[in-house]
Amino acid sequence: MFESDNIIPAVALRGLNIFPGMVIHFDLSRKFSVNAVKTAMKCNGKLLAITQKDLDSETPGLIDLYKVGTVVNVRQITKLPQGVIRVLVEGLYRASLEDISMCEKKYLEARIVPIDEDDGRIGDDPIYEEASFRALLEILTGYMQYHPKVSRGISSQVSPDMPMNEIVNRITMNIPLPYDKKQEILEGQTTKERYDALSKILCDETAIAGIHADLSKEIKDKIDKNQREYIVREQIAMLRKELDGNKEISDEELFHKQADELIAGDDIKEKIHKEIKRFANIPDSGSEAAVQRAYIETLLELPWDKAESDNNDIGNASTVLDKNHYGMDNVKERIIEFLAVRNLNSKGHSPILCLVGPPGTGKTSIAKSMAEALNKKYVRICLGGVRDEAEIRGHRRTYVGAMPGRIVNGLKTAGVKNPLMLLDEIDKVSNDYKGDTFSALLEVLDPEENKQFRDHYTELPVDLSEVLFVATANDVSNIPRPLLDRMEVIEVSSYTENEKFHIAKEHLLKKQYEQNGMTGKMIRISDSAIKDVIRYYTREAGVRELERKIGQLCRKAAVKIVSDENIGKVSIGSKNLSEYLGKRKYLAISANEKDEIGIVRGLAWTAVGGDTLQIEVNMMPGKGEAKLTGRMGDVMKESAEIAMSYVRSVGPKYHLNEDVFTSNDFHIHIPEGAVPKDGPSAGITMATAILSAVTGISVRCKVAMTGEITLRGKVLPIGGLKEKLLAARLAGIKKVLVPTQNEKDVEEISEEIIGDMQIVYVENMNEVLKHALSR
Is 652 helix (H, G, I), strand (E, B) or coil? Predict the structure, then answer.
């Protein structure tokens, strides 16, 4: 027995409401619900059936249940497999839920308050009661027009003689309303509130069903109209064909004809014909038809075996390359070699070149000139910022908006299988969660694998072996080693001042005159002005800024010509150059005028060419600490530490006491502190500066040096030598100390860069100090 009649077992129902007077059965599987039913059967058979708000809640509490439920009488329990029971109950009366909790016997125990019902009518006037009944019946009839599955016997189950609360319960029990709507009716305090709630819900549902029916009819009418139009068009086409012999063919026949004419292997044609037959069986109105059509059109547009004859004339290639580009001899030489081999062996692999150099040095434009010289179609694919593997391999056709990758699209654009394909900015490729783009490029750039390159979209092997791939990059350190190993790297180094002058005279002036509407009769820019622009207004490895400055001169001249009709020709020389470009932006870095202690001139490579670095070392009383300033990177800081250790190890040779290093602090500084600096090539420079500072021996001002140092004083090779020597020559340096292992690199540098400089090869610090120190 329970402690009170107001405390009874409870079951939480999911998606089900029970009303007073309702006889219904339902299944229970949750253990605590089964326990509640069994406990009720042992006692008086009473049970609270209350609906859950959240159907997914497995252990509902007070906040998960509605506030009003129905006390039911359990009539029968039937056991089903897997611990499920089927319960037959009869609704007795409504009750308000005050509290609920899990009792010791593992079932929900509810504290309830029975709801006092009114007399079941909504008014004292029998006429008003009759009118309300008829109104509700009329609303129900309208509802049933849009819900034919609702039993027509509901109307016969209610009569005007029945109390209105019983009528409301019977109607609500027998119509398919959502459980939250039924709960709203169950929770009405009075019969009038419940009557109004039922009437409003039925009216709303009827209106929604009416709108839905109208929309369905409208859509159906449109579909029927399209079908009628399609049938009529087909009939007209057939009649026209019969009457005037029209030869118009269907899309399927046209595709088959194009596939037969396609220059491709039999396996490719067989696959395309198969796809065309599949396309013919797809309804035109479906979205799948558009996807299949796009796929077939892509396959038909690809140049499977269509190739174009190359121009293998070496003389023509040399003429075209020399006409469009000044210098770049190593690139031109490699193209001539390719043509020579192609003349001897037409079946040889096309090379995969990677042009590496600073920005603005003509890497992209030389690729275009290569295509012109070889009479190849030119396709440029910019890889900067590409980080999705699908950009290379394509998207699978299962995805919406799928398309081929950039490589296959490039072939489609070229229209032949042997174009020159430029992979621009290959070092700017990045990766993310969508895949490794560099790995996708491995197959593209491998001569042994790209014969059978498979794009995810085409799903057919595409032959890339005859494509002449040319990649460009600024920094090969960003390219993974396996990918770099598949390419032939050609260095495109910085231009010398003389090369820039010739490029400006032979190419840039003509280009800017044309872009700005100028002719040689309207403007004259002297050779000295061009050289001053190069020397004092630009500082770059390439010629992009130089071209912009020449364009600025042309625009300023255009303003003068348009403003004053009396000006026949604008002449720009070194004397009036500042009137057009303003004050000089850069001053020439020159060597020091006198020998100094602790100051050594080093050489550095930057992204915009070579530069000279003045390394300064000060020694002052202290505790043996070393301070490094000038925004040095980690590698350069380690070089400074190695240089300091070396100098300490050779101190006795220069009669230095050990307390020199323990009782003094050393400050190593590289001017232009806002510019980041890194690399090991300043090692011998810092060692020389430190030794000069501690011994008091001055360093020769006309000597510059570059090289990595070891703890034993050996000098190791460095890179970027051409740019470094060019910077040294512009600074007026007379002697440059270079690692012996870089001798082969010096031999490849033109005399124009070296000039009258003396190049001294050094193997160890003893040789460096012999040439650097004044005594």
Answer: helix
pLDDT on residue 1: 37
Question: What is the distance between the alpha carbons of residues 684 and 681, in angstroms, rounded to a whole number?
Answer: 8
The residues that are catalytic are 681, 724
Find, among 513, 494, 492, the residue nearest to 504 by Cα: 513
The CA distance from 577 to 571, in Å, is: 10
Sign of torsion, CA 714 719 722 723? negative
Select from 737, 727, 636 the least CA-distant residue to 683.
636
CB contact set of 714 (below 8 Å; sequence gap of 6+): 763, 764, 765
What count of other Cβ atoms lies within 10 Å of the Cβ of residue 617? 26
pLDDT band at 2 (very low <50, low <70, confident <90, very high): very low
Q: What is the 3-state secondary structure (H, E, C) of 607-635?
A: CCEEEEEEEEEEEEECCCCEEEECCECHH
Chain segment 506-535, per-residue pLDDT in tens: 888 988 988 888 888 888 889 899 988 988
Torsion from C-alpha of 192, 194, 197, 201, nearest 10 degrees: -130
Residue with tokens 């039925």: 202
**Whole-angstrom Cα distance, residue 201 to residue 197?**
6
Q: How far apart are CA 775 and CA 769, in angstroms?
A: 9
Out of 84-98, 161-175, 240-254, least confident range: 240-254
709 φ/ψ angles, rounded to the nearest 5 degrees: -115, 145
Widest Cα–Cα separation across the chain: 131
Q: Do the Cβ atoms of 26 and 13 come closer than 8 Å?
A: yes
What is the per-residue burial (b if ≥16 Cβ within 10 Å, else e) of 88-123?
A: ebbbbebbebeebeeeeeebbbbbbeeeeeeeebbe
Cα–Cα distances in angstroms (integers) from residue 600 to residues 136, 456, 615, 629, 731, in the given order? 104, 59, 5, 16, 14
Count Cβ atoms below 10 Å from residue 149 Cβ, excluding itself. Answer: 6
Measured distance CA(766)–CA(714) in Å, rounded: 9
User: Distance (Å, rounded) from C-alpha 565 to C-alpha 546?
Assistant: 29
Place of tokens 């699908």: 390
Cα(382)–Cα(424) distance, integer angstroms: 5
